[in-house]
Amino acid sequence: MARYTLSVLDQSPIAEGRSAADALADTLDLARHCDALGYRRYWVAEHHASPALGGAAPEALIGPIALATQQIRVGSGGIMLPHYSPFKVAETFALLSALAPNRIDLGLGRAPGGDMRTMLALQRDRSRRMPLDDFPSNLAELLAYFGEGLPEDHPFASLEDTLPSGGGMPAPWLLGSSMDSALWAAEAGLPYCFADFINRDGAPIAAEYRKRFTPSVHGEAPHVMVASWTIAADDSETAIRLGKPAAMLGALLHRNVLIPVPTLETAESWIADNPGALDARRRRAILGTPAEVHAELDAVAAEYEADEMMLVNIMADHDARKHSYSLVAGEYGLAKHGEAA
Questions:
Q1: 161 against 278, higher pLDDT
Q2: What count of other Cβ atoms lies within 10 Å of the Cβ of residue 221?
Q3: Angle formed by the axes of helices 179-188 and 135-145, to 10°?
Q4: Please, is 1 exposed, middle or buried when counting C-beta atoms within 10 Å of its C-beta (0-12, 13-18, 19+)?
Q5: What Rg, from alpha-carbon coordinates, does the chain have?
Q6: Which of 35, 47, 211, 269 could form an S-S bond across to 69 if both were Cys, CB 3.0 to 4.6 Å?
């Protein structure tokens, strides 16, 4: 049986009839819950202009989560680097590390986290679209602040000594769902988190990352974490039902229709009236009893040769989300730091 640690990705879902403030309160509550259960990491996502997801600024959420928890590592899943200057990200995460020493992860991605109009609105310079092909150079600059340092002749080299200190380095990760991200992670010697809940065909990509990995100050060996869509319930029928609000949300998003996370009743009614809508975009979803979830996670972990599995889901019912993570933790017998029993 594969051995891997378990972590959590929270997108701060905003349920129908509730507010972003409610969603963020749920995020803090779920983080405390997962910390007590023994999960290894708790990451929060960056999504913009979404009525369904409240986590527009993970850098603002990480500090409160870290202060509300005791042992779990807290991080970004991820910071969308094209929106920011590398130095600003370095300052922010050095400060977070000073706030919660040796518990901060810096997950980095290239995706916009929203549509093209939103991406333009996030830019300081709205006269043109920022090029995505400058991501590798921006990544290299950011990693230099937390690694071997910038070259002496770099115009920002003297700024390294001004970063907030005393908390150790945040642990940088690269996030992705394509070969580009895998190759960048391998070249930079970074641990790699693959979004299987977006692209279920990532095993060859993870294998290429392992093959091309170059040791660095950030890691001596390749390390793969796989983020998978996972809902556990007391019985299989309930788990499948709990997955319906996210299925409706995804189907409408595919049509560029944005809504809050629907209630179970809303989703079941909509799906009954639109039975073919869910066939447009099939993604892997692990739904079932704790034992069924365990077996499927083992299979995915074996497929990717994963060192960690990160569980993500979107539900309108916060108590059902908490119960899902409790059931998985109990099934695995999670111990301190989320080690699989």
A1: 161
A2: 10
A3: 30
A4: exposed
A5: 20
A6: 35
Structure tokens at 319: 């108590």
pLDDT tens track for 96-125: 999 999 999 999 998 765 666 766 777 766
3-state secondary structure of 127: coil
pLDDT tens string 82-98: 889 999 999 999 999 99
Is CATH 3.20.20.30 correct for 5-225+304-338? yes
Beta-carbon contacts of 305 under 8 Å, excluding residues fewer than 6 positions away, are 206, 207, 210, 224
**Residue-level pLDDT at 114:** 60
Contact 267, 308 (CB under 8 A): no
Conformation bin of residue 49: beta by default, left when phi > 0, alpha when psi is -120 to 50: left
For the full predicted model, state whether its pTM sits above 0.85: yes
Q: Are 45 and 13 in contact (CB under 8 A)?
A: no
Could you tell me the two tokens for 81?
């680097």
Helix or strand run (H / E) with residue 91: helix 86-99
Residue ranges covered by each domain of the chain:
5-225+304-338
Sign of CA dihedral 30, 28, 103, 336: negative
Q: Phi, psi (5° rounding) for residue 38?
A: 100, 15
